[in-house]
Design brief:
alpha/beta, globular
């Protein structure tokens, strides 16, 4: 049974607060799912302040319980297993050739492969994400040549990464472990409140749809944090630590402690992932 993880409770069981009824702001999601523009392994939207994607345990990376406890200090939190989500996602995906994003996309493809999904990997794309005063900026390093592919990544939040990658191209399918339903109204931004929510993608597949909690009748934007990303950026990117982490998790001193905890973790699988994605897939793909 899943329970909501309170900030100062022991790290034993984690939460999933599933919506008992549809929220007004989710109507476009319901319509998109009915029309099969969005296909999810779960038809319900899970809401919380912070979602932590554990995409490191599956590859033998161990982290201290204190790390999660500190991430929960300012947020009610759901911890999700990337391996379990990939198993759910593998059961609904069509057998198209795949293209992945580097990093999280390669991890997702590796876990899908481990779960028995046999689609061949055709391309690995790369989008550089940098932070300036806590605000992300994306720039395509390696694009995709084919557009008749299933594009795989780990998390869909603002959609900025895909927007930078596709640059006006249209692809049939994109698949994610987690997809946020928090999409701004109107036609501005990287996502829209209709169809797949991605203007350049015909169908969106995901294991789980997530959203922020409601405040005064409005849904907050959920924070979605990949542990693999955290283990990389908190050490390698000073701006990420001093801005994003300090703002989200209680100030500069807690952010420094988070970075200290991360420095003690053996990150060898992540280093392989960054150095040679194909070697990572071969070693950990089952």
């Amino acid at each position: 049974m899943n329970k909501r993880l309170k900030c100062r409770q022991a790290l034993v069981v984690f939460t999933q607060k599933v919506l008992a009824q549809r929220r007004t702001s989710d109507k476009y999601i319901v319509q998109s799912m009915r029309r099969r523009n969005i296909i999810s392994a779960s038809e319900q939207v899970t809401d919380n302040d912070l979602f932590i994607l554990d995409d490191v345990t599956a590859f033998g990376i161990n982290y201290p319980a204190e790390l999660i406890e500190r991430l929960c200090v300012c947020n009610e939190t759901t911890l999700l297993s990337a391996e379990e989500l990939a198993t759910q996602l593998a059961s609904i995906l069509p057998p198209l050739p795949a293209a992945t994003l580097s990093g999280g996309g390669v991890i997702t493809y590796t876990l899908l492969k481990r779960a028995g999904y046999k689609t061949p990997l055709e391309e690995i794309a790369s989008v550089e994400r940098t932070y300036r005063e806590g605000i992300p900026e994306c720039r395509t390093q390696t694009g995709i040549e084919r557009t008749d592919v299933l594009l795989i990544d780990d998390i869909l939040a603002s959609g900025q990464t895909l927007y930078a990658l596709l640059e006006g191209k249209t692809i049939p399918l994109a698949a994610f472990l987690l997809a946020s339903t928090n999409v701004s109204k109107g036609n501005k931004g990287y996502r829209i409140r209709e169809k797949s929510t991605l203007p350049s993608v015909e169908q969106l597949y995901c294991a789980k749809l997530v959203n922020g909690t409601q405040v005064n009748g409005c849904n907050k934007k959920p924070a979605i944090l990949s542990l693999r990303y955290l283990l990389t950026k908190a050490i390698d990117n000073e701006d990420y630590k001093t801005n994003y982490l300090s703002k989200k998790f209680g100030g500069i001193e807690p952010a420094k402690r988070i970075a200290e905890l991360i420095r003690g973790i053996d990150r060898e699988p992540i280093e392989i992932l960054r150095r040679d994605p194909m070697q990572f897939i071969q070693r950990y793909g089952g």
